[in-house]
Structure formats: structure tokens, C-alpha cells
Amino acid sequence: MSTPARDPAVHYGRSHDVLPPDDDTALADFFAEQHARLEVIRRNEIWDWLGGNVLSFSHPERLLRGVWTEIASMALLVLTILVAGFTHGPVLWSFAALTLACLVLGRWLRTQPLRLTAAHYRRAGAYPAAVFASGTAREDEHAIPFVHALVGFEVRNWKELRQLVAAAERLEALVAGRAEAPVELREFVGRLRADLEAKVCDTTRLELPAAFGLPATEVVRTYYGPQWLPDGGLDSRLLFVLADRAHRGPDRSRVMFHNTWGCGAASLAAHFPLGGEA
Description:
Layout: H1 24-44, H2 60-84, H3 90-110, H4 112-123, E1 125-139, E2 142-152, H5 158-176, H6 186-197, E3 202-207, E4 217-223, E5 238-243, E6 253-255, H7 265-270
Antiparallel strand pairs: 1-2, 1-5, 2-4, 3-4, 5-6
């Protein structure tokens, strides 16, 4: 007897406002609800819930060329209408073809970021991340809060979630100099310190060395808005990021808005305060 197909946009489990510690079933329900919310966003293309159109996916010059090419198509359309008053021969058809070509090319160049953004959001998934460093960068007189965190790509239960948070606490101590880094990790920890001093928050990821002993885990350096977090501020070590696992470059990872995390988001985050045990 075959199992009936289930719609990934439907949450078939329970929603939990409170997530009891060590209740793997409730945590699985939370992850399933989170997955269903993302699927609804994808189907309806509500990209604003995931951060909106990422303009950097296309070079700014292409966007500008697209705008100017569309403007050129309008001018060519006027010329085509004027030419049509004198001839219906090859000259008219040439102007018409050039007008159409400019319109199509301009639209393609101008909408390229949206197409690439949609492709990214369809590939990306939601993953828990544990903060090991944070700070504030400045750009054009604006303060930009950021975090450096460990992203766990295969966290499925409370044990694995605690391992991720414990690894972030260990890394925090190494980067802050409260603990001595093993020889095989000194170069990596040195890079993380330099990134923190440089206030790197370009949404890129780094592969975590195998010597750290935590597979399927990477470091992300990303900005966030306080309003994106459940309690309006960074008071928990745990947060969730939307990440394209196949790409570590800029704009492939971003802190998710807490509304997309799931019903028990605040409860789950409260189990892992930045100050230590809850």
C-alpha cells in the first residue's frame, strides 16, 4: 500500500508555543512547521518575508544598461510610428524589430536580479545558527549590528542543537583569547579574530576545519536587524539563517525574520541565552 503524498506547504504536526527541552518530537514539529512556512512563501513568491530582492545578484551596470535600453526602445517606437507614415517596407520592419529587441533586452537586464533572487530563495533552506561573536559596524553613519555564528546544516534533535551551541561557546572562548587554541586551529582562529576586528558582515561563510570535530557546520558573518529577532534584540545565542548550502559567497546567507522561524521560536531561543545556561 503506497503512502499518500504530503504537501510540503502543509504542517501536519503540532504547533508548540513552548518547546520543552529534550523533547525531540516537539523540536521536529517546529522544524516541520518552519519548512512549511518557507514553502508557502516560495509558492506565493512573497520574497519580502525573506529579505526582498537582492540587487547585488546582478552588476549595477547591467541594471543601468537595462533602464537605458528600455528608454531607447520607447524612442525607437516613436520613430517606428513615424516611419510607418511613409513606408511599409523593409525599413519599417527593421525599426520594428530593433524596437522589440531593445524592449526585450532591457527588460531582461532590468529584471535579472529578481530572477536570480527567486532562484536563490528556492534553493536556500532554514538552518539553526549559534552566535560566538557580535559587534556593530558603521556604514554612511549608520550602525549595522552583526554576528559571527556557527551554522549547523544537519541539526535534527536537541543533542545536535546543544552540540552546536557548545561549539559556539568554545569558539567564543578561543577567539576572545580566554582559551588557548590547539596548533591545528590557530590559523583559523586567527582569521576569525581578524574578521571580527575588521567587523566583517558581508554574509559570506567559511568552512569549519575538520579538527574542530563538528561536521556539516560552517561559520557565517552576517548583519541583522534587531527587529528580526524574537525579542527585538540579541539576547540568545540561537538564531536561524536562510542559507544556500552550495554557495558560501556574499548574500547567500542571511538571518531570517523571526516570523518565519515557527511558533515556538521565542521559547527555543530562551533555552540558549548569550549569558550561559537558562
